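Lab notes, practical 5.
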Amino acid sequence: MNTRGEQLQQQDIVKARMMSALASDAARATFAWIWDACAEMDTYIQIALTPGDTRLRAELFGPSWQSLHADTFDGLTACCPSANSENGTVAQSPSLQAAIMNYASADQVEGDESFAGERFSSIIQFPVFLLHVLRVVEGKSLDETESVLDDKRLISRFTEYLSSGAPAVRAEQFALALLKCRVLFDSLILKREFTMATGDDGVWSLKRVVKGENRSRRSVTFIPRYVGSFPLDRGDAIEGEASDDSEISKRIRLIEAALRVTYTSPRTMHWITQLLDFAFRTPSTELTPDAVLNLLEKYAVGKLAPLFRAGELDANGFKIPRIVFTYLDYLLAVKSRDLDFQFTFRNSVEHFYPQSPDSELIRAYGALDEPATRDLFGNLALLTVRDNSKFTNLPPYVKSDSERIVEQSPKLRQMAAVAKQSPIAWGSDAIREHHDSMVDILWSEIRHHAIAV
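Output from the prediction step:
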């Protein structure tokens, strides 16, 4: 318990223990500065670390605010506002006159910056992000047990880390890696974006922050602009420009969204660790969108490959994992050029031809010639629980008219197109034909990425 009678969070205890390992007040101030800024997961780190201070922002992240220029902990200490880099002591509080001057210049900060945290929402919370970074720092085999991303084990994981070497060195090493990974996270991992155009639900967003200008008759102020993440080294883009609309940027955003809605528990988001680790160890010149896309696709295919053998899907019905559905929807969206498709959280398996059709449905539309085809992948799609309950035992011909529901899945869209042709169009033959076609697409991906099955 702290002095306000509130329960301390595990990340607060970890922060205190790591700071206690540092030798000077300046080092501790620098560590706290980095840690507290990185904890603001819904705000881009360039803004969280240097709120309102565009001069310091340029010093830390370059003239276009895109990449971290400091490559040592001492270099960060030299920039830390609350640390005196000359004598290693924490800087004194500003004078009254300096405080008034700072307050007077506060109106130079644009609203775009002050509301940045309300526009974007991170897909993970800070304690889990700490565990992702810890795995990158440790450089160990990236196994995928849930315990390695279990935020309830935060203290024990960091206790092991600090005891694995000189604690002060470990703390400085982690702080630097934390900041580097946060810059990469903000540029490479999608967020949820909320604007007037997107409404309350928001959209999936994959953007980076760059320096922009706001000109008026009296002055020029520098403000953050949000542009497409790729190419990562482009600093002259304007918001909404071609980089955000490029096909490969949209494909990366699309597959990340597919992975996000598939692995909903923070403990299972190992694809984030994989991407952060790859980006952390890859020179910036080699961190291309093609390399990022290939890593993400190969990760997804590696998850579905064990379910296939000799070109056939070994699982039926409810035993088919969500990654099979979501990765196929990703592939179909790419194939149809529907790169702005928005994945939603769907966890209910829908039998397009009902699992338990009532007698009236059978009399009106006929029974399946081969009842076993009902549980084939060709007859299944993912829906939200709410929409699945609306479909219930309706015949496929009727379901195909529910456009809002059908649009949740490119696979379901193809199934509905067949069912619309006639009341009896969606039968065993259509199911098997669709099944074979979809399985062929997935099997082709397994071969393309040379994944062993």
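Observations recorded by the TA: The first strand starts at residue 120 and ends at 121. Residues 85-89, 98-111, 235-243 have pLDDT under 50 and may be disordered.
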